[in-house]
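In the design runs reported in the main text, the only information available to the sequence generator was the tokenized backbone. The following block is the verbatim input for one such run; it is reproduced so that readers can re-run the procedure and compare outputs position by position.
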């Protein structure tokens, strides 16, 4: 019986962009590198503090319990003779960092080590300098008279290669220092349901006059825009990429981000860091369509007092909806949170100022108290304005439409 021909497809081809996996077997063999040769070794010394910070940075990309065990590792290489490049990936976001090293001896292009395992040891080291030795998949860290061994590390050729990002489509300069804190706040308003994948990311757009960021889970929405000269662009960035970006660029006045590969990838690169990721594809919802254009009624609360009161009410089990009834009467706001199933409730009253008329006989509206607290907690003004029209229309927290939180109402039981 004729032997059945085995498929030459690479099992990582569908998971790692840039790996096609459809070449013939004889042409699919990667050239033998020094990393794959037995007997090759390398040693060097590294500043402990720099190594600790580098591992703290790259390990955040390494998920626990990867379906591909090799992704639990850091891929290291010697660059320019005196730099150690440490790279990690979860196949969605790719991070790299370069740190200086000294006393380099031997030749070994690449090597892998267990990211979290090595990090646990290195974070406890208090010597100023560590000596690293690597040979045949075994790693030895020497701290003075102390020695730590990590044997049987995987072959670096098993580690996914970086995605082929192609040519740069657009280079966007953004005023990052002014946006950074708001990007961090925006993460808390993203959706978590991967069925609506576009809502799990942060939408950033520039129209020539402003750069804006928006995030929503369809129940609450965050928006901030900064008037400034900008490029014209729009991207939906994964939360992981934004988090990594905040780690490396939060003190930068401006940063340049490259949009590549026909708008499917995003890259941020400095002399020390590289952060890249795959943009979320799809059309972001027209969030402006749900923003009320006419809010005739406005109340103003003291932010700290409001935050404290809502936090107290949230200590009461609010059931599945976390409903809080908010009513306005004679210059006072009454917050009533009740769980009929458990017989628990809490009522708090505080002063407010108001303008205009509210189109409701009871002058009440319902909110998810967890979402209300989230909205209040990201605002920075001493006093918070809440603009409303009807109990079944969205309410807006904020001074103007350049920086606001939108909250969808919860249906109240009469």
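Verbatim output:
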């Amino acid at each position: 019986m004729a032997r059945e021909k085995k498929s030459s497809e690479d099992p990582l081809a569908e998971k790692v962009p840039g790996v096609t996996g459809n070449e013939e077997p004889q042409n699919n063999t990667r050239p033998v590198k020094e990393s794959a040769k037995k007997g090759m070794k390398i040693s060097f010394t590294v500043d402990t503090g720099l190594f600790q910070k580098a591992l703290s940075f790259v390990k955040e990309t390494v998920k626990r319990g990867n379906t591909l065990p090799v992704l639990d590792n850091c891929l290291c290489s010697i660059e320019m003779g005196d730099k150690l490049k440490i790279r990690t990936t979860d196949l969605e976001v790719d991070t790299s960092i370069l740190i200086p090293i000294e006393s380099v001896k031997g030749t070994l292009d690449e090597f892998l080590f267990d990211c979290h395992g090595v990090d646990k040891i290195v974070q406890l080291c208090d010597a100023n300098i560590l000596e690293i030795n690597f040979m045949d998949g075994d790693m030895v860290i020497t701290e003075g008279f102390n020695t730590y061994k990590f044997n049987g590390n995987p072959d670096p050729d098993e580690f996914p290669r970086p995605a082929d990002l192609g040519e740069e489509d657009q280079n966007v300069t953004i005023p990052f220092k002014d946006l950074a804190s708001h990007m961090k706040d925006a993460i808390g308003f993203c959706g978590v349901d991967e069925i609506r994948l576009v809502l799990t990311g942060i939408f950033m757009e520039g129209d020539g006059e402003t750069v804006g960021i928006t995030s929503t889970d369809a129940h609450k929405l965050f928006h901030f825009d900064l008037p400034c000269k900008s490029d014209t662009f729009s991207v939906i960035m994964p939360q992981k990429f934004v988090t990594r970006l905040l780690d490396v660029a939060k003190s930068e006045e401006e940063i340049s981000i490259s949009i590549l590969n026909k708008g499917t990838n995003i890259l941020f690169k400095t002399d020390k860091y590289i952060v890249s990721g795959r943009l979320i594809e799809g059309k972001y919802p027209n969030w402006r369509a749900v923003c009320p254009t006419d809010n005739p009624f406005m109340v103003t609360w003291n932010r700290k007092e409001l935050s404290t009161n809502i936090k107290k009410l949230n200590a009461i089990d609010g059931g599945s909806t976390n409903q809080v009834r908010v009513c306005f009467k004679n210059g006072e706001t009454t917050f009533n949170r009740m769980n009929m199933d458990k017989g628990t409730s809490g009522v708090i009253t505080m002063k407010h100022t108001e303008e205009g008329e509210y189109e409701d006989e009871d002058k009440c509206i319902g909110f998810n108290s967890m979402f209300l607290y989230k909205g209040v907690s990201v605002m920075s003004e001493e006093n918070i304005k809440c603009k409303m029209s009807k109990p079944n229309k969205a309410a807006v927290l904020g001074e103007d439409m350049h920086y606001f939180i939108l909250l969808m109402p919860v249906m109240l039981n009469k």
